[in-house]
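Workshop exercise sheet. Pairs work together: one partner reads the sequence aloud, the other fills in the structure field after running the prediction. Swap roles for the next sheet.
Pair: D.N. / O.F.
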Amino acid sequence: MTTNNKLKVSALAILGALSCSSAQALSTAAGEPDSLQSRLFADDYERALTEVNASEAAGPVIGVALELERLKVNGRVSESQTLPLSYTVRSDLDPRRQTTTSLRITHARSNARDNYSYVTGVAFRRPMSDQWTVVPSVSFGYVEDGSGGTQVTGSIYAVNVASIYKLRHRQFDVAIANQLGHYRTREFRGPGLGTTLNPQINNTVMRNGVVVAMPTVIAGRKLSAELGLTRTDILTDHGDPSFAVDYYNEVSLTLGNNKRLANARSFLRGGISYVDGQGDVHGLRVKLGYWF
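Structure field:
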């Protein structure tokens, strides 16, 4: 391993490049469930699982959602509001081949610090068979973190590939999702300090999950209920306390008017998930989205 994240904060302290508060702001870039890096691979994973039904009418599909999150991460509380947007285009030759462009805008607050992040990415859905789909993607994230009167900005870029395998049954559907991505920082800047540097955080992240979808009826309406279980592992060494979370799990329940795992041309989905991870990491996410 050529880059060790254990050296990051100590090296910055030796250089005198960042204050303690700014180093804390920098740690929001990667390694914890509310970090910029985590928002990148969560966006990559969701793009891979969201498929527009190829049998419906052709044409682009727009997605708009609102996501609220409250996490406790090793003694601090993080609250965020996210606006995910997406635009999906299907191939005329094979509607199962889809290209999705997405943008996530997030405002977060932790320890009296405001944090704004912007994540954009492009995913290419390619069917290998009727059951198996491969989704490579590229993404880029930018963060602005105000800390102690000094604003710190930075960015991360990523390459990613996901595999989705679907098993269909008369009563339910099952999707097995596996994702592997590599995330690397670019330059971080502290305008008040006149500082520009690259902390060289290079993380490989693996995410594996299972989603079970089944039809249900609530208040006379036919809906699809989806129960998901996801495990996220950050494979790079995290010996420094600023990167104390190597893994976390997420359990989710989603309701929608989509046709089980085969999403319709237009559909509404809402859900809640519980996050639990290494150490003192736990929290809730709530999301409501509409695709049309």
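Discussion prompt: The chain has one domain: 7-291. What would you look at next?
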